[in-house]
Write a structure and sequence with these properties.
By secondary structure, the protein is of the alpha/beta class. It has 2 domains: 86 residues, Rossmann fold; 123 residues, 3-Layer(aba) Sandwich (Rossmann fold), CATH 3.40.50. The protein has 10 helices and 12 strands. A 5-stranded parallel beta sheet has the order 7-6-8-9-12. A 3-stranded parallel beta sheet has the order 4-3-5, sandwiched between helices. Helix 2 crosses helix 10. The longest helix is centred in the first third of the chain and has 23 residues.
């Protein structure tokens, strides 16, 4: 356990690198078994700068683990039906195991329609209603990458989470809701909080585990966290003093048993989990 974090800081970069090494071995095994490798296709619409960086990293790491990787770029003026037709084409392409349409999309494109057009068996983001429903029902599903990454980091610190009280700050479809489902699966007692919660500090002080995913810089203070809690910070906020999380790291690291830094905590795990989901999608389509 001491190798995972020093001074109680959870090293997401190191744990993500270990996961990628493991995936590299799995890809080699799949290639020898099926004579093909998982393929990830990412669609990027427009010129959103953070999206471009993120997509570049996805491509780099997909190739690093031995997968096929393709990025399809469109202008932000693309017609919705052209995009939907391309997704249908990828749904029917046997070389493509995973399809990801990078968000955000331009306003004239219906995000929901795009997500629902992706074959749920190739939905590596875990956003398709079929996967959302399966996750909340406790069935096999693609799990959204960031919550999956948070869950893996938690399990590195505490193998058995049963009976722990977890507080999730944020209720988004991307993070808060799926995170809640994963914690329930681990037999945690879960409290979901958000911007309308009356006494957020009081709720946090009861928590053995805090997942902060609300997008408010340094919201969680040192006196919000009980001694020995595990704190996972999903926030990425641009401030005058640089990128910071939703947790006041300097204060909270003095009381928490373990804490993720920003950057270098949850972020690297998100892409590693995307690659993991691509491998899982490949296995599902080839086991039928």
């Amino acid at each position: 356990m001491h190798q995972v974090y020093s001074k109680m800081i959870i090293d997401g970069k190191k744990i993500a690198a270990e996961l990628r090494e493991d995936l590299k071995k799995k890809v080699v095994e799949l290639k020898s078994k099926y004579n093909s490798v998982p393929g990830l296709t990412v669609i990027l619409v427009g010129e959103d700068a953070p999206s471009k960086i993120y997509v570049k990293n996805k491509e780099k790491f997909a190739k690093e683990v031995g997968m096929n990787s393709e990025v399809i770029k469109y202008s932000e003026k693309i017609e919705e039906k052209v995009l939907l037709n391309k997704i249908e084409e990828l749904n029917n392409d046997k070389k493509v195991s995973g399809i990801l349409v990078q968000l955000p999309l331009p306003k004239h494109i219906d995000k929901r329609k795009v997500i629902e057009t992706i074959d749920h068996k190739k939905d590596v983001d875990g956003f398709h209603p079929m996967n959302v429903g399966n996750l909340s029902s406790g069935y096999d599903s693609s799990i959204p990458c960031t919550p999956l990454g948070c869950s893996l980091l938690l399990k590195k610190i505490e193998k058995n989470l049963s009976g722990k009280h977890a507080v999730v700050i944020g209720r988004s479809n991307l993070n808060g809701k799926p995170m809640t489902q994963l914690l329930l699966k681990e037999n945690c007692t879960v409290t979901i909080t958000h911007s309308k919660t009356k006494d957020l500090k009081k709720e946090c002080l009861r928590a053995d585990i805090i997942i902060a995913a609300v997008g408010m810089p340094r919201l969680v203070k040192g006196d919000w966290v009980k001694k020995g809690a595990i704190v996972i910070d999903v926030g990425i906020n641009k401030t005058d003093s640089g990128i910071v999380g939703d947790v006041d790291f300097d204060e909270v690291s003095k009381v928490a048993k373990a804490i993720t830094p920003v950057p270098g905590g949850v972020g690297p795990m998100t892409i590693a989990c995307l690659l993991n989901n691509t491998v899982e999608c490949f296995k599902k389509t080839h086991s039928n």
